[in-house]
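Tutorial handout. Part one gives the primary structure; part two gives the three-dimensional structure as tokens.
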Amino acid sequence: MSTAPRLTALDALHRSLGATMTDFAGWDMPLRYGSERDEHNAVRTKAGLFDLSHMGEITVTGPQAVELLDYALVGNISTVGNGRARYTMICQEDGGILDDLIVYRLGETEYMVVANASNAQVVLDALTERAAGFDAEVRDDRDAYALIAVQGPESPGILKQLTDADLDGLKYYAGLPGTVAGVPALIARTGYTGEDGFELFLKPEHAEGVWKALTEAGAPVGLIPCGLSCRDTLRLEAGMPLYGHELTTALTPFDAGLGRVVKFEKTTNGGRFVGREALEKAAERAETAPPRRLVGLVAEGRRVPRAGMSVVANGEVVGEITSGAPSPTLGKPIAMAYVDAAVAEPGTEGVGVDVRGTHEPYTVVALPFYKRRK
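Part two.
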């Protein structure tokens, strides 16, 4: 039995804008409105507007909310200040990554966990199960929020026209309650594009009004609506991992080169958290005999590498592509790949990607491919 895809509060608006829609994690989402390249370049140079209402919001409240989160997640959530956010992960007992998350601290005992659309139910189930024995409540708030992002160098100027919140004082990875275009919103300085920008959590019934107000405020500086397709090339250039590609249950955070998110020095719950023992072993392995490392690859030719293609050197398979696309900013195809340590150093040549039987030449580079000028 196939279920109809879920629609965001902005569905009718996307269709009126002529968006090409696609099924993404059970949601009908805009893939692009016009040219993917134009949308990508708008975010890099001006601003882009995204509907991210497919993301999964889970609220955790109660006297032991932070103890629960410290136990359930690998990060040290007790050190997150009020109004701040943290990038973290939730792992299985064996250390495998269930999802990467952003946790926002909304109040003294209130937190919002934002999960990827494809994993929202898995994360909700895991948090609910891990809440046993804690004086805390886990609430599915996926239907309570629409999420709109405005990203790019012009985004602070655009948003300032619609809010009296102190955007200049709002640091990266912080969120504050305010009003946008006259309606309440949580304004977070977060994003997945490698640019400055904001993510606005608001009630679904307010989404259309806020989208239209942002469109109007941004029109003079070149803001355009953007779909999931350019969001993928933007995050790839910025070296940001995508669940199901760079992150999976078969990998620990250490395998993914993101061991820094695992905090063994937590003091809550006597330092206990789900996956701790497995992750301690993974940390040791990563130091002594690292498995494959995540690197960037830049093509010398024009053929685009895709996830699952083999990376080769001297006739041997030495890795696998996790994400690949043409890079509008670099003007050539790029990819992220897990490769053997022997070929992981930036500048390594003689590396190829097996594109349908032909070994296309690539150069290994350090991630990210693109870093904005601050």
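Part three, for discussion. The helical segments are 11-16, 36-45, 65-72, 120-130, 155-160, 207-218, 228-237, 276-288. DSSP finds eight helices and 20 strands in the chain.
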